[in-house]
Amino acid sequence: MNIILLGPPGAGKGTQAQRLVDSYGLVQLSTGDMLRAAVKQGSDVGKRAKGFMDAGALVPDEVVIGIIAERIDEPDCANGFILDGFPRTVAQAEALDRMLEEKGLGLDAVIEMEVDDEALVERITGRFACASCGAGYHDKFQQPQKEGVCDKCGGTEFVRRADDNRETVVSRLKAYHEQTAPLLPYYRKRGKLKTVDGMASIDDVTRQVKEVLNNLAAAQ
Ligand code: ADP
Ligand code: ADP
Ligand code: ZN
Does ligand 1 have an atom closer than 6 angstroms to the CB of 9? Predict the structure, then answer.
């Protein structure tokens, strides 16, 4: 099964992707995570991407398409993947269609997570993650069961993203509405778009997403 999670920054794509990895054995392909790793390493891709990311703007298409093309070639992707944060422009969606076609692969569904802009600001400014395993948390909506200790790995160090501040969020939301929202009609036209209510609780969104995936599996 190959799926895309599509939604604005803070919609819950990463949170749901982690859960789908655990229950369906799919690989999570997050271009945001890949780009942050590249910036940390100081690689050429990282150097090109950093200024755009700090400003809350999209990284140029050719950079992101290049990293996804390489990643999708790795053998673990053959069992199915969840794209989280890619594609984000129509040019990226078209490039993805070409890549999949070359490999004889298809997309099973594009799951749109619908969330209001006001809720997104609160979600993003309260977001943090485990420094060792990357598990995602929120100050208010998803605290570790034991304060200061990661539920998944027992780690005690947490990190916040440099771009998760109020000012950058405004630019990121603007980029979403201007450059990414056109993907909704793109995939609707192709019969791939399924929408879930991303305003619901984390567990309820998981239930909705699983329902979509189970219906797809049943129809196959
Ligand atoms: P995205 O990957 O779409 O940017 P995340 O999955 O990182 O979003 O979620 C953003 C923040 O909101 C995280 O701190 C997460 O714990 C929290 N969150 C995710 N889904 C929900 C939800 N349905 N309700 C409340 N908070 C949520
Ligand atoms: P979010 O939580 O906002 O959905 P991501 O982790 O997906 O954030 O992305 C963080 C930043 O990385 C984006 O603001 C953008 O600068 C860059 N980025 C990630 N994915 C892409 C992409 N597919 N195209 C262009 N830029 C991207
Ligand atoms: Zn952890």
Answer: yes
